[in-house]
Amino acid sequence: MYFQQQEPKSCIFFPTPSCSWCHLYHQRCLAGIVVLILQDASRLHFSSFFLQLTHLRKIFRHRFGLPCPPSNFVSAVLGLQLNPTVQIREEACAEPSYLSRQDSSVPSNLKALDLSMDVQNSPVGESGSKNRGLTRFLLSEEQMREEGYPILGLPNLRDFVHTGCSGKVTDLSPLFGLDCEMCLTKQGKELTRVSLVDVGGHCVMDELVKPHNPVLNYLTSFSGITKEILQPVKTRLKDVQDKLKHLLPSDAVLVGHSINYDLQALQMIHPNVIDTSLLFTGNCGRKFKLKFLAEAFLGKEIQRGDKLGHDSTEDARAALELVQFLILQESRKSAELSLSNTLVCPLKSNVSGNNMQAQPQLSCMPCDERSEALSEPSYGTSLTHPGFLDTLQSNGQRILVLGRKENKEFPSSSLSENIMCTSNKEVLQRAKEEIPRSFISIVQFSLNTEYVQADLMEEMNEKMRMKMLQMSSVYVGPFRKRFCLQSVRRIFQVFGPILSLHVVTETHQPFVCIQYEVLEAAQLAVETLNGTNVEGCCIKVQRPVSEFTLDWDLMLKELEEDLVNEGIIYISGFKKTLTEKDLQQKFSHFKDIEAVFLPQDHKTGKLKKYYFLKFSSSASAMDALQKINEQENGSGKIWGRKALTPSYFHEDAEFVPQDPESPPPSELFARGDARLDNDIKEVMKKLDKSIYKLYKTLQRNTLCVVLLPGTKSPHRSFSGFGLIGIKEDN
């Protein structure tokens, strides 16, 4: 049994709802599943204490980024964060607080319903209150990135097709409702049906699509698609892509419920979208089902139980009508009142001062049914599956949840056994005892709250940023008083992109400080040009010396030997930007290349001029590197070395210096106030050891996942991080 992380040929990773980036083989051999959560830890912690987390780095080869955490991470892991039945009943069935207050027309527990009328608190509507039409509800590019929309310039989109709709959008632009159905193949979810309706609700396109890969599951209960339905179909993905490009005008606006999943299934990029799942949101960003919204606001019943699966035309039309409904509303208040009447239990008819009328369509709905109607699955209406705990229940299994008492995130479910402890030490001891008795276990360790305060996290982030800046910088010199700075730039930029370059004038003879974008470039400059003759001078190439770089030799060794960098080499020195095809052709004589990584600019999406090649083994990588250096470096075209920067560093520019105008490292360091205590370093080391001790006790073939959820505060959020692997023989 083994776990394989699929690294796309063109990096960096593109967020996708389906788990297409990894595969678990021989699942029947699985001995158990253990999820270890380091509560309040983030990707920043993993990077800042990289040297201290020895065991995590040496056990887990496969790593991945996580978005900012939901309010209840443990429940989110279990799939409960969007369907907390008890909480929903309390919100939906409790007597509304506004009945006793004349000054408030909307109950506080319903104010979380966001119709994008309040621009500051809304996930959409950045254009401001001046816009009254459809443009008010358009998603910005930043919001589309956050929700995982395919966007022009993002990596891993080489097979995606642009709709060609690049015209200016106004309040008079045409709206089109879009919805897709999918099936399950070995590649994940593939398109089986696409429906498009125009602004009048007329269906202008309804096509069945035959997937390219053999179907493993038709997901009939959701898609309505069966083997018999798809058997005679000849239409392929490219056919519907071409048809959509022909049908949509240049200023078309696509409307859908979690339409990002539809565009991903279509493998199409469209810049102007309205997402109804984001127009109507509840507490903690909970999304509502399209079925519920259609009934609450439109008085329409869709996705009826007597039908086989969903009707994509019906769903597309419902989403379109919801947006039309909002455009017609004069204010947010009327929309909030409409929903509040459908959520609350039958109100007292003689309440004074309350003239609201309940929606007749839902006035008789039992509270339990209303509760179930609220939650919208995070992966979209067309991709719904039974909940995780429901699946466990159907297999007669329970889940063990272990954690500290002060954590208030324990799920309330009859299918989970919760064990609360007073310390991380007790959590470790109980976990050793209880995990062998449970097939699925969640173990939660915690940092002390003093270590995750906002100001401390900001200080950690700034120190990590300065550390990366200094490790990516070199001082070059001495030069003559009159030397050509541009010549120095030309010589040194072959190793990698230069963020900034300036002359240091405090020395007797001038030196140049060069700040590179990546660690590999700075290290190549030191290894290659230190002691050489440049501009008629024998120069030194050295790193700045500070408390951040004193242990660079150790950091260099650990980064080179890190499992995620195994078999990966860095190459630079190309005069023009190369595509994946260019690289494959150029290095076609290396037969064991597994992947090509093409880093991109986070802001513009443009490809960089440095690349990473992944080989099947370290020996193959070193052999290729030697040949590249021997054959190419003589002409000064290509330079290479072992990779240092883990791929997940490229995914997030959270603490990587990106500003070419930033002050030189010495100035930044002078401003830094080293207040971080060694306590947090020791805590991270202890947690690392605890995980190792627990890992050693696990059965062979146990799937082990370590999650650092990230941290969230009103001022700043830090993304999470994950590690995953299969326990092998000790």
TrEMBL record:
UniProt keyword list: Exonuclease, Hydrolase, Nuclease, RNA-binding
Start and end residues of each RRM domain: 472-546, 567-637
Entries under Gene3D superfamilies matching the protein: 3.30.70.330, Ribonuclease H-like superfamily/Ribonuclease H
Entry keyword annotation includes Hydrolase: yes
Record-level GO cellular component terms: nucleus
An annotated Gene Ontology molecular function: RNA binding
Pfam families per record: RNase_T (PF00929), RRM_1 (PF00076)
Origin superkingdom: Eukaryota
InterPro entries for the chain: Nucleotide-bd_a/b_plait_sf (IPR012677), RBD_domain_sf (IPR035979), REX1-like_exo (IPR034922), REXO1/3/4-like (IPR047021), Ribonucl_H (IPR013520), RNaseH-like_sf (IPR012337), RNaseH_sf (IPR036397), RRM_dom (IPR000504)
Matching PANTHER family: RNA EXONUCLEASE 5, RNA EXONUCLEASE REXO1 / RECO3 FAMILY MEMBER-RELATED
Protein's UniProt name: RNA exonuclease 5 isoform X4
Species of origin: Geotrypetes seraphini
